[in-house]
Amino acid sequence: MLRYSIIGTGAIGGFFGGRLARAGRTVRFLLHSDYEHVLQHGLRVDSCDGNFVLPKVEAYGRVEDMPESDVILVGLKSVNNHDLLPRLLRPLVHEQTTVVLIQNGIGLEEDLQRIFPQLHIVAGLAFICSAKVGPGHICHQDFGALNLGNFSCPDERFQALLADLQDAGLTAAQVPYLEARWRKAVWNMPFNGMTVALNTSTAELLQMPATRKLIYDQMMEVIGAARALGVEALTSEFADKMMAMTSTTAGRWKSNTCTPGPSPKPGKPASTCPNSPCSKRNCGLCRDAASRFAGHRELFFSLLLFSTLEVYLDGRAGLPFDVDGNTQGNLAGTQVRHRHIGVLEGVLCND
Question: Less packed terminus of the chain by CB within 10 Å, N or C?
Fold first, then answer.
């Protein structure tokens, strides 16, 4: 029987690790601020598929105290992959360990394989609405599928992992690796960037014609990048499907509670503004949000393209444009990608 470790016991790692533990698998959870709470009270998952509590879990506050594992589910943000993640993995891996990167991004598996050449790596693509709402407390609101793209794992071990997830009652399936990564990016890159830049929700972005068009244009930018790199299965039809799906479901989600709905997080400004024009970003999506954002449109698209494609420009695939869209030489270096994502999520949302 496979032994599991969870690195990043939050909304994603806590949910999938909790389901595996509930099904009787050996699961060890690495925790930081929640360690004492989970050690004493266990892990609680409020789920649209049925609530459950694991009163006793194998909780660890230090990775050095954890045994080696057969499978490691990584739920950290990918900005940690170049420094923190390798340090956390080294005490846990053995010759046959499989690492599942349940993260968003392009090129993550290639980056990790360069650090650990012998490691078995799988891409984990989570389609789930889930949030950590308190210490050791996960709220699963909607969906819950985990697709797996095999990057470098022997088929026998890959199938054993897939079977464990399915036996735990999870919707899990094998998908083509590269195409699946880009399919996820088509939704994540536009919506994640825009909700941060405008301090709003997916539902509100789709309600305004101007921002709805921006989202669609960005989806098509990502699809164009994917097709330039050989993922020809992605077309405008997929963007249309994603827009329709999000329009149908987005209004049901909240990130801080288990009661579906579109209200904002506590302490954040209201999502609509009674005063027009508003001052800087004192509100979320207000009536002049699109015009305020218009001045940043070219920078936003440049950063979006750079963040998406830069990982491929370090010798694996040369694309004939720079961050301004000019036909110049190749760009290089994966660390820069994270700095530009920081600009996108930091500078633009503090204009």
Answer: N
